[in-house]
Amino acid sequence: KNKVYLYYTALAQRPSGNPPQLQTIGLVTSSNGRDFDKQRKVMTQSNTYPPEKGFVGYSTPSALTHNGKLHLIYDIATYGEHNEHQWQQVAIHHASSNDGLNFKEDKHPMLTRNDFSWTSGEVIGPTVLISDNKVKLWFAGHASYSDLAEFIKRGMTGPEVGIGYAEIGLNEFLKD
Predict the structure, then answer these.
(1) Beta bridge partners of 96
(2) What's the pLDDT tens digit per position in 5-41?
(3) Where are the alpha helices (DSSP H) in the chain?
(4) Whole-number percent of the chain with pLDDT over 70
(5) C-alpha angle 15/6/44, rounded to 5°?
(6) Is the Cα torsion angle 79, 80, 84, 85 positive or negative in sign?
(7) Rg of the Cα trace of the chain?
(8) Using the 8-state DSSP alphabet, how is residue 50 labeled?
(9) Is the peptide bond before 19 cis (omega within 30 degrees of 0)?
(10) What's the distance, CA 52 to chain centroid?
(11) Distance, CA of 172 to CA of 139 (rounded, Å)
(12) CB proximity list for 139: less than 8 A, separation 6 or greater
C-alpha cells in the first residue's frame, strides 16, 4: 500500500494491577518513512494467554507479508512476583490479518521455552522470512537464570545461550 507499517510493543499499567503490566502490539504507518500517523492498538491479550495465569501480553513483533496477508510473529510475556526473573518471554506465537489492523491469533504457540533445554529461561526475539516454500524462523533464548551463573563462570561459553532456527512448510504455516 506504499506505506511503512511499524509494529511495536506498547506497555501500560494494567487497570486491575494483576499482573501489573499490560502489553499490546501497536501500529503506526508512514508514507515517507519519516512522519508517522496516530498510534493504534492492533493486538491485545487474548483468552489464550489470560492475565489470571500471569500472562502480561505480547512483545517483540516481527511482521511478514505473503499474498496480501500480514503475519505477526511475537513473544508471549509473563510476570510472577516469585519467579526467578519477574518478567519473562515464554513462547513465540503467530497471528494473521487481511488488513494489517485486525488479527486472528493461532490457537497454539509456534514454540515455547520448554521446547529446548537451552531456552528454559526465555525464548525471545523472533525474526521470520519466507524462502523455498518454507517459513524460516530465527529466535534467541537462554537457559534459566540459575543455569546462566555456570555459563558466566565458564567464561560465557556453553549451551545455555543461543540463536535457534526452525522452519515450517509454507502451506502448513498458512493453515487457519
Answers:
(1) 71, 104
(2) 999 999 999 998 889 999 999 999 999 999 999 999 9
(3) 145-153, 170-174
(4) 98
(5) 30
(6) positive
(7) 17
(8) -
(9) yes
(10) 20
(11) 20
(12) 92, 111, 123, 124, 125, 126, 127, 163, 164, 166
Alpha-carbon gap, residue 124 to 62, rounded angstroms: 11
pTM of the predicted protein model: 0.89
Alpha carbon separation from 34 to 3, 4, 18, 39, 63 (Å, rounded): 11, 9, 37, 14, 19
Q: Which three cell numbers stand for residue 43?
A: 493486538
pLDDT level of residue 144 (50, 70, 90 thresholds): confident
C-alpha cell at 83: 519467579
Instruction: Tell me if residue 45 falls in helix, strand or coil.
Output: coil
Residue with cell 510476570: 79
Please provide the average confidence, as pLDDT, over all residues in the chain.
91
Per-residue pLDDT reduced to its tens digit, 107-120: 999 999 999 988 98
Cβ–Cβ contacts within 10 Å for residue 101, how many?
14
Q: How many CB atoms lie within 10 A of CB 104?
A: 11
